[in-house]
Design a protein that fits this description.
The protein has helices at residues 33-38, 169-172; strands at residues 2-6, 13-17, 20-22, 25-27, 47-53, 59-65, 73-79, 81-88, 99-105, 111-114, 118-124, 129-135, 144-146. With 185 residues, it is mainly beta. It has one domain (44-179): Sandwich (Jelly Rolls), CATH 2.60.120.10. A six-stranded antiparallel beta sheet has the order 1-2-10-7-12-5, with no helix packed on it. A hairpin with a 6-residue loop joins β1 and β2 (13-17). The longest helix is centred in the first third of the chain and has 6 residues, at 33-38. Pfam families: dTDP_sugar_isom. It catalyses: dTDP-4-dehydro-6-deoxy-alpha-D-glucose = dTDP-4-dehydro-beta-L-rhamnose. The active site is at residues 63, 133. This is dTDP-4-dehydrorhamnose 3,5-epimerase. One of its GO terms (molecular function) is dTDP-4-dehydrorhamnose 3,5-epimerase activity.
C-alpha cells in the first residue's frame, strides 16, 4: 500500500509507502512494481544508486541525462534528511523553469518521483545522510548534464548560505538554464 500525491508540478509525485512498526523495529515495502502500476506509475527501473554525504550542506546537482539515457528517478532517504529539488527543463511545458522542493527524511519516509525532463538535485540537512534512488536508464557519461544550482532564474532556496555549501568541481561549473540546449521538447 502506498499513497501518491501530486506536487505543485503535477508530473512530480510525492509517494508515501506504508511503514509497519513494532517492538522489533519496522518493515516497509518501499517499491513494488504492481502497487506502483495500480497507482498509475508504470516504470521499469534498471539501476539502484546509494550515496552518503558526510557533511551538512552537501549539494549534489542539478543533474539530468539526455536521450537515449534520460532517467526517471525515485528518490528516498534511508538515514538523515535532505531538501530534494526537481526543476522542469521541458521547453514546451507550462511549468518550464519552475521547481518543486520537498523535504525527504528517514523519519517522514516519503519518496519523490522525478520524471524524465527534470533536472534533479538535493542538499543534505543532517550529517551522514544516505540517499537511495532508482533510475529507469543506465548511466550514460556522454549524456550526463547539469544546470547551475545557483541560477538566479530558478530562485531555489537551498536553506544554507552558498559559502557553506559542499560541492563537487563539476557541480560548480554547470551552465544556467538559459544557456542550456533544449534537450526535452
Amino acid at each position: 500500500m502506498l499513497s501518491v500525491e501530486a506536487t505543485a508540478i503535477p508530473d512530480v509525485k510525492l509517494i508515501s509507502p506504508k511503514k509497519f512498526g513494532d517492538h522489533r523495529g519496522f518493515f516497509s515495502e518501499t517499491y513494488n512494481r504492481a502497487s506502483f502500476k495500480d497507482a498509475g506509475i508504470d516504470l521499469e527501473f534498471v539501476q539502484d544508486n546509494h550515496s552518503l554525504s558526510a557533511t551538512v550542506g552537501t549539494l549534489r546537482g542539478l543533474h539530468f541525462q539526455s536521450a537515449p539515457f534520460a532517467q526517471d528517478k525515485l528518490v528516498r532517504v534511508a538515514k538523515g534528511r535532505i531538501l530534494d529539488v526537481a526543476v522542469d527543463i521541458r521547453a514546451s511545458s507550462p511549468t518550464f523553469g519552475r521547481h518543486v522542493a520537498v523535504e525527504l527524511s528517514a523519519e517522514n519516509w516519503k519518496q519523490l518521483l522525478v520524471p524524465v525532463g527534470f533536472a534533479h538535485g538535493f542538499i543534505t540537512l543532517e550529517p551522514d545522510t544516505e540517499v537511495l534512488y532508482k533510475v529507469t536508464a543506465l548511466y550514460g557519461p556522454q549524456n550526463d548534464h547539469g544546470i547551475a544550482f545557483d541560477d538566479p532564474a530558478l530562485s531555489i532556496d537551498w536553506r544554507i548560505p552558498h559559502d557553506r555549501l559542499v560541492l563537487s568541481d563539476k557541480d560548480r561549473k554547470h551552465p544556467r538554464l538559459a544557456d542550456l540546449p533544449r534537450y526535452f521538447g
